[in-house]
Amino acid sequence: MQSVQPHIRIGTHMTQARYAVLPGDPKRVGAVAHWLDRVEELTFNREYRSIRGWIDDVEVIVMSTGMGGASTGIAVEELNRLGITTLIRIGSCGALQSGIQLGDIVIAAGAVRDDGASAAYIDKGYPAIPDPELLCALMHTADELKLPWHCGRIRSHDSFYTDREEEIDRYWSGKGILAADMETSALFVIGGLRGMRTASILNVVVEHEGDLEQGINNLVAQEDACALGEEREIRLALEAIRADAQRLAR
Ligand SMILES: O=P(O)(O)O[C@H]1O[C@H](CO)[C@@H](O)[C@H]1O
Ligand SMILES: O=c1cc[nH]c(=O)[nH]1
């Protein structure tokens, strides 16, 4: 029997892709399928739901990472073993600055490493930053698509409901951090250590000083601006991959 990776349950006989698009939520995988050609279901094990499809002649895997750095780290490692070289997260986030609206796109230029998974790999002095070429491609493509976008530092964390969340958010907001999520820092650090190219696009589902649970519920129901933001980040990731593949082929 041909072997598959232990958690994501994908083997090299199932894909030749070099690009992976990584939502946190397994449900978002289905939303990406709409924008790809020749879509095939791969697997769904634990939090890892995967499909493959094509943009022109570029094969892409779309796989959910689940929530947090620990499951994201496993996803990154096992995708690396399949020969994936380029990882683009399409996540959701809470804004930490006013003026950033629901459904706006945040492109992460770096992440505060308040997650445990990346700390398990390497000292906190190691920077959580995306691949510079992918970052430029995302900003350029976001302009071309006329998206409302922001680029800057974000914060990745492991906690949602501690007694100090408001205080912590206020602190990082005061330092100019744009938004918070739970996977970007682990993606950047672990992917970077493995020589992979990484980037992270986030859809704003909670405004600054908005109601966290209400924002998350909006996302679950695919309502209003959050659903539009999800569509925006999917189109941005796929168009940036198209442009990147064309550039590398030249
Ligand atoms: O919507 P996803 O991509 O899961 O991203 C965000 O949503 C989850 C929390 O609600 C965390 O995973 C956070 O990073
Ligand atoms: O506020 C939020 C919303 C989504 N994800 C987060 O990590 N924080």
TrEMBL record:
Residues in Nucleoside phosphorylase domain copies: 18-238
PROSITE patterns in alphabetical order: PNP_UDP_1 (PS01232)
Keywords: Glycosyltransferase, Transferase
Broad class of enzyme this protein falls into: transferase
Any Pfam family matching the protein: PNP_UDP_1
InterPro entries per the UniProt record, alphabetical: Nucleoside_phosphorylase_CS, Nucleoside_phosphorylase_d, Nucleoside_phosphorylase_sf
Record EC number: 2.4.2.3
The keyword Transferase appears for this protein: yes
Catalytic activity: uridine + phosphate = alpha-D-ribose 1-phosphate + uracil
Recorded family membership: Belongs to the PNP/UDP phosphorylase family.
Name of this protein: Uridine phosphorylase
